Automatic annotation (TrEMBL):
Pathway: Cofactor biosynthesis; thiamine diphosphate biosynthesis; thiamine phosphate from 4-amino-2-methyl-5-diphosphomethylpyrimidine and 4-methyl-5-(2-phosphoethyl)-thiazole: step 1/1
UniProt keyword list: Magnesium, Metal-binding, Thiamine biosynthesis, Transferase
Annotated positions binding Mg(2+): 72, 91
Residues holding 2-[(2R,5Z)-2-carboxy-4-methylthiazol-5(2H)-ylidene]ethyl phosphate: 136-138, 166, 186-187
Lineage of origin: Bacteria, Bacillati, Bacillota, Clostridia, Peptostreptococcales
Protein name from the UniProt record: Thiamine-phosphate synthase
Keyword Metal-binding belongs to the record: yes
Co-factor note (free text): Binds 1 Mg(2+) ion per subunit.
Record's function text: Condenses 4-methyl-5-(beta-hydroxyethyl)thiazole monophosphate (THZ-P) and 2-methyl-4-amino-5-hydroxymethyl pyrimidine pyrophosphate (HMP-PP) to form thiamine monophosphate (TMP).
NCBIfam families: thiE
Length: 209
């Protein structure tokens, strides 16, 4: 079933940033700190490794009743019965993915301008990611998105809008002001020594406003 999702603090995983620390323990700490959605993003794993990671992550997200989203891989999202899948502009087309996952799973699409955002909505995306808002070391070759563009997209679209890219405790206020439905972060949570405290810190910046 497609849940009614609280997108406010959306964690995207990256094992490189964890520098050997346990992924599953890190996910749990982040959830305990306030993360409301977890996306598993594995750019270098084999299919088997990705599947096993997703299956194990689902035990944790299920325990806290938090949606699990799989990056890039519709097949793995279906195989582990994740809540949904997140796709970029070079992945399977949104309409094709929707046909594969059905109407009860969440479809998220990465965008970086209004045209792509409207197309994603028309292609039945349940939410869009918009970024990168700030410079980031986590992903190479990002398209830069201004706060003005983010605001414009938010005002023109009626599905949840999630901002991503270089968002941290210092700049998050400028994102919250745009009234987006959530912020997605990697390094400002998983790159910190105390993951639960980092998550709490970011979460309080979102809910304070
Ligand atoms: N998509 C656009 S920017 C980005 C992704 C996956 C990386 C976000 O990572 P961080 O560490 O929060 O900047
Ligand atoms: Mg992708």
């Amino acid at each position: 079933m497609k849940m009614n999702v609280d997108f406010s603090l959306y964690l995207v995983t990256d094992r490189e940033i964890l520098k050997g620390r346990d992924l599953f323990n890190s996910i749990e700490q982040a959830i305990l700190g306030g993360v409301t959605v977890v996306q598993i993003r594995e750019k270098n794993a084999s299919s088997l490794e990705f599947y096993n990671i997703a299956k194990k992550a689902k035990l944790i997200t299920d325990k806290y009743n938090i949606p699990l989203i799989i990056n890039d891989r519709v097949d793995i999202a279906i195989a582990v019965d994740a809540s949904g899948v997140h796709l970029g502009q070079n992945d399977l087309p949104a309409k094709v993915a929707r046909n594969l996952i059905g109407k009860n799973k969440i479809l998220g699409i990465s965008t970086y301008n209004l045209e792509l955002a409207l197309k994603a909505r028309d292609d039945t995306a349940d939410y869009i990611g918009v970024g990168a808002l700030f410079s980031t070391n986590t992903k190479k070759n990002t398209n830069k998105v201004s706060i003005d563009t983010l605001s414009k997209i938010k005002s023109c679209i009626n599905i949840p809008v999630i901002a991503i890219g270089g968002i941290n405790e210092t700049n998050i206020g400028s994102i919250v002001k745009t009234n987006v439905d959530g912020v997605a972060v990697v390094s400002s949570i998983l790159g910190k020594e105390d993951i639960k405290a980092a998550s709490q810190n970011i979460y309080s910046s979102i809910t304070r406003n």
